[in-house]
Amino acid sequence: MKRTLRLALALSALGFAGGCVSLTPAQKDTVADVQQFADATAAAYGMMRIPVTVQAPTNLGIGGVYRQGNFYLNANMLDSGHLTAVVAHELGHYVLGHEPTSGVSMAELLKAQEVRELDANAKAVEIMIRVKGMPQPQAVRTMMVFLRSAQNAQNRGQPNAPGHRPPSEEIADLQARFPEAPAPNGSQSAGSSTSSAAAPIIVPAWKPGDQWTFWSDSPRGSGTFVWSVDREEVVDGTAYYVITSGPTRQEPAREFFYQKTDLAWRMLKVNGALQSSAEPPQLRYVWPLTVGGAWEQTVVVTTERQGTSSTETNARACRVTGEETVTVAGGIYRTIKTVCRDKTTNEVVYEMWYAPEAKHWVKEWTKYPWGVMEREVMRVKVK
Q: How confident is the model at residue 155 (pLDDT cuts 50, 70, 90)?
């Protein structure tokens, strides 16, 4: 009993004591979705209903905790792309019957907990397949992306979560249990083809309310963000889609302007002020999008910061190389792939996989002087 109390007190100290939390209407809808996921899981496994309680936000790297028939969710997770992985993991603890253990030393307790966390990762994959209806590669990828973000945070100094092995070891364990899953840091895809038999893809029509949740990973950090179509706006006679991102606790409000005619990026405003612009607007696609299509473009990007202005010139030669089926955390998509090279060095600097179903790219690889950035879609809501 004393050991159980010590564990409960430790969890409370980490920010999971009860309390009232103020939520936005969208967050309340998300909580309802989480409870529905929990209810469906309980029904699928013939177990009693597990209530979901949202706890005050913390920055301690703990997204949720299962304890004695209850699921406590950090409010920060409600706006995170990792929500499905965290919820499935904690439901995995519930399904596996992982309750506090008494009568052992704290060292033995933590060692046993490490094994439980590995088992909960694997059970989370099973739950996403069984309850969410995800294909196994997508379910595994969802957990891999979450663990990679945890690894990145640890690389930047965040301590390892109590009772967990290092994320790299948890990733290796998950790969061993699901050996056919795609590697978490590669550009692997299934069913790739260079056939050009598919019909040309026309420019999509975005609508206010269309939304894409992305995961981003690079040497500078890892995390999730949301792009939402806010409105259409005409600037100097040109019609644009205005895509918003933020504000969040870490990022200010951003507005990205993309031309309606071709989705070329024109400018970025931060908190209403112009921060950067491209001349001419930077192309990512030439429509209709077809295998074998190619274009070259030289763009001057101007950045305004703290009253100073700087420019950067990018000269790229791009080609649509083929069709590929890719697995990302947001699903399995049939895509058309574009590869761009630096015109001076002929080095590949950008790869993008566009999915007509998502009306957006669903996977992106970009090389910068400071390292490689990978991004992929985690959730799509389009009209």
A: confident
Ramachandran assignment for 214, one of left (phi > 0), alpha (psi -120 to 50 degrees), beta (any other): beta
Do 108 and 225 share a domain, yes or no?
no
The range of the structural domain enclosing residue 146 comes to 2-177
Distance of alpha carbon 146 from alpha carbon 77, whole angstroms: 12
CA atoms within 13 A on the CB side of 237: 0
H helical segments located in the chain: 2-13, 25-44, 83-96, 106-130, 136-155, 167-177
Residue 186 to residues 145, 327, 355, Cα–Cα distance (Å):
12, 11, 19
323 is a domain residue:
yes
User: Which one, of 322, 325, 336, 82, lies nearest residue 217 by Cα?
Assistant: 82
Provide Rg for the chain, Cα atoms. 23
Question: Helix (H, G, I), strand (E, B), or coil: what is residue 11?
Answer: helix
**CA pair distance 210, 238, nearest whole angstrom:** 21
Torsion from C-alpha of 238, 280, 268, 339, nearest 10 degrees: 120
Record the tokens describing residue 379, joined without a space.
């959730």
User: Do 225 and 216 contact (CB within 8 A), yes or no?
Assistant: yes
Q: Is 105 exposed, middle or buried (0-12, 13-18, 19+ CB in 10 A)?
A: exposed
Do 234 and 355 fall into the same domain? Answer: yes
196 lies in the same domain as 171: no
> Angle, nearest 10°, between helix axes 83-96 and 106-130?
110
Q: Alpha-carbon distance 90 to 71, whole Å?
A: 7
pLDDT in tens, 7-39: 333 333 333 344 468 899 989 999 999 999 999
Angle at 206 between CA 296 and CA 240, to 5 degrees: 60
Query: Which of 84-93, 106-115, 179-188 has the highest average model confidence (pLDDT)?
Result: 84-93
Provide the β-strand partners of residue 381: 211
* Rounded Cα–Cα distance for residues 321 and 192 (Å): 11
Instruction: Say if 242 falls within a structural domain.
Output: yes
